[in-house]
């Protein structure tokens, strides 16, 4: 009996209160639609990609990315290392096993004060990018001395590695015989 009275009272409140059962159903459906539209909104993310080349140069690129699914986003950047993450911003870094495009375009090996050096442009322009180690110039063949004076163009990773290794044999500590 109490249960029956409760249902009657609830019906009276709902009907005379201006609220119907269908209002509850519609409100519940609308709530579900609102939640779905929120879920469908993509996330805008400022993504910074840092490429670190073996010659030490870091190139950075920033763009805005629309993220629809975080799983896809993380999978796409799987080969990158996460450096920093803030609200709406993320920074990734990747080690590149090559020399930078900048060095390929502008780099020359040469000597400055008998130190193997990379120059921006030919060595006579004296714009040093990076210095390595001292070379015992008395150990150089005449063609090697000429090459280093005029500059050895660094147009590939292979040239970069070859020159560093070839002239490493001519450092004063290695050239002294026992």
From TrEMBL:
<dbReference type="InterPro" id="IPR038118">
    <property type="entry name" value="BOFC_N_sf"/>
</dbReference>
<feature type="domain" description="Bypass-of-forespore C N-terminal">
    <location>
        <begin position="45"/>
        <end position="95"/>
    </location>
</feature>
<dbReference type="Pfam" id="PF08955">
    <property type="entry name" value="BofC_C"/>
</dbReference>
<protein>
    <submittedName>
        <fullName>Forespore regulator of the sigma-K checkpoint</fullName>
    </submittedName>
</protein>
<feature type="domain" description="Bypass of forespore C C-terminal">
    <location>
        <begin position="98"/>
        <end position="168"/>
    </location>
</feature>
<dbReference type="InterPro" id="IPR015050">
    <property type="entry name" value="BofC_C"/>
</dbReference>
<dbReference type="InterPro" id="IPR015071">
    <property type="entry name" value="BOFC_N"/>
</dbReference>
<dbReference type="InterPro" id="IPR038117">
    <property type="entry name" value="BofC_C_sf"/>
</dbReference>
<dbReference type="Pfam" id="PF08977">
    <property type="entry name" value="BOFC_N"/>
</dbReference>
């Amino acid at each position: 009996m109490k249960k029956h009275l409760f249902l009657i009272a609830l019906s009276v409140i709902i009907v005379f209160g201006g609220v119907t059962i269908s209002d509850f159903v519609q409100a519940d459906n609308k709530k579900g639609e609102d939640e779905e539209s929120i879920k469908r909104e993509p996330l805008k993310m400022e993504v910074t990609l840092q490429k670190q080349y073996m010659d030490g140069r870091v190139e950075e690129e920033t763009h805005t990315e629309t993220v629809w699914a975080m799983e896809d986003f993380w999978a796409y950047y799987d080969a990158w290392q996460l450096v920093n993450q803030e609200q709406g911003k993320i920074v990734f870094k990747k080690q590149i096993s090559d020399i930078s495009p900048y060095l390929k375009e502008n780099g020359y090996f040469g000597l400055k004060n008998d130190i193997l050096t990379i120059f921006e442009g030919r060595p006579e322009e004296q714009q040093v990018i990076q210095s390595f180690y001292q070379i015992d110039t008395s150990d150089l063949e005449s063609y090697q001395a000429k090459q280093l004076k005029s500059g050895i163009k660094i147009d590939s990773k292979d040239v970069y590695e070859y020159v560093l290794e070839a002239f490493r044999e001519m450092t004063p500590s290695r050239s002294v015989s026992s």
